[in-house]
Each structure stands twice: as structure tokens, then as C-alpha cells.
Amino acid sequence: MTNRISEKIGGGWIFFIIVAIFYLILLSFNFPLGKDAFIKFFELLQKIIPVFILVFIFIFISNLFLDAKKIAKFIGESAGIKGWFVSIAAGILSMGPIYMWYPLLADLKEKGMKESFIAVFLYNRAIKIPLLPLMIYYFGLTFVIILTFYMILFSIINGLLVDKLLKFKKPII
Fold first, then answer.
1. How does pLDDT run across 106-159, given as a tens digit for each residue?
2. What is the dihedral of CA 163, 168, 169, 173, to 10 degrees?
3. Which of 16, 42, 56, 148 is deepest in the core (most CB within 10 A)?
4. Who's near 88: CB < 8 A, 6+ residues apart?
5. Which is nearest to 148 in space by CA: 89, 67, 102?
6. Which helix (H) or strand (E) holds 145?
7. pLDDT score at 169
8. Considering only CA atoms, which of 113, 124, 128 is closest in space to residue 88?
């Protein structure tokens, strides 16, 4: 029964309904706290809507210009070493909150992006170019170079592990 409901409505809507019910319960027991929660929610919504719009623009552009063949060429199963470099560079250059990248990565995965490249992209988001000068100031150039090298190296190891582990995954029924 629950599977039928979640298939018809969708997991996201079910989660939204449950959260809305919790907010209503909170309002009935503690109105000032519930009101503050709603205000904070709408303040957060105002902050993330521009980022959502930017991500949807990226998804639109990727749908417009990138087809499965182009994706496969750069970050698909047959990408080879080029895919690793693209994933590393994209991860380092990406900005903004990580959760805003999930829809774009999911869209690219549907078009053929390897899971290992997604893992490499996410791992390399920890390398922040705007913060490198500050890191160099506090820790020294040698430390930053070695740390950055190891982060890139371990992102590749992480990607390879993800690839190996996902080969053993069982299909969800």
C-alpha cells in the first residue's frame, strides 16, 4: 500500500506533507515557536531561490547543448583519463552550496555520467581556490601543495572505490 502511494505521489511530496504536518502540530502547541520556524523557513527560501534558479539554468543549458554522446565522451563510461581530469577540475571550480549541485549531477548521471566521476567531483569540492591564499598564509605553500595533491589523489582513489563498490550493488525491488 505504501509503495503504491509513494509511486503515485512521489517521495519528495510525502516528505513535504510530513514536514507540513509537524509544523502544524508545532503551531498548535507553541504558536510563537511555530511562527518563528515559518519565518526562518521563508528567510531560507529567499536565500536559496536564486541558487535554485541558477542550477535550473545550468540544467537547462546542459539539456540544450549536451546530449548523451557528448556526456559519454567527457564523463561517461568511455571517457578514460579525460573524465577524471574533467571531474577533478569541475569539482575544484564549482562554487555554492553542495546541495544545489545534486540536481545537476543527477541529470548528468541520467545522461551517462559515471558514479566514480560524481564521487571525484564531490570530493574535490573541498579544494577552494578563493581560500588557497589564506591557507598559504597560515600553513605555508609547501603544506598547501602537498595537501591539495593528496586531496586530488584520494579523490581518484575514492572514485575508484565507488566504482568497485557499485559493481556489487543489488537492484532495489
1. 888 888 888 999 999 999 999 988 888 888 989 999 999 999 999 999 999 999
2. 150
3. 148
4. 120, 121, 124, 152, 155, 156
5. 89
6. helix 141-166
7. 67
8. 124
Q: Give the predicted TM-score (pTM) of the model.
A: 0.62
- HSE-up of residue 60 (Cα within 13 Å, Cβ side): 6
Phi and psi angles of residue 82, each rounded to the nearest 5 degrees, phi first: -60, -40
Model pLDDT for residues 15-45, shown as the tens digit of each residue:
888 888 988 888 888 889 888 988 998 898 8
Query: What does the angle CA 50 – CA 9 – CA 33 come to, to the nearest 5 degrees?
Result: 55
Nearest to 121 by CA among 163, 152, 166, 81: 152
Chain centroid to CA 78: how far? 23
pLDDT tens-digit readout, 37-94? 889 988 988 888 887 787 778 777 766 776 656 666 677 777 788 889 989 988 888 8
Q: DSSP letters along 48-114, please? A: HHHHHHHHHHHHHHHHHH--HHHHHHHHSTT-THHHHHHHHHHHHH--S-GGGTHHHHHHHHHTT--
Distance CA 16, CA 148 (A): 39
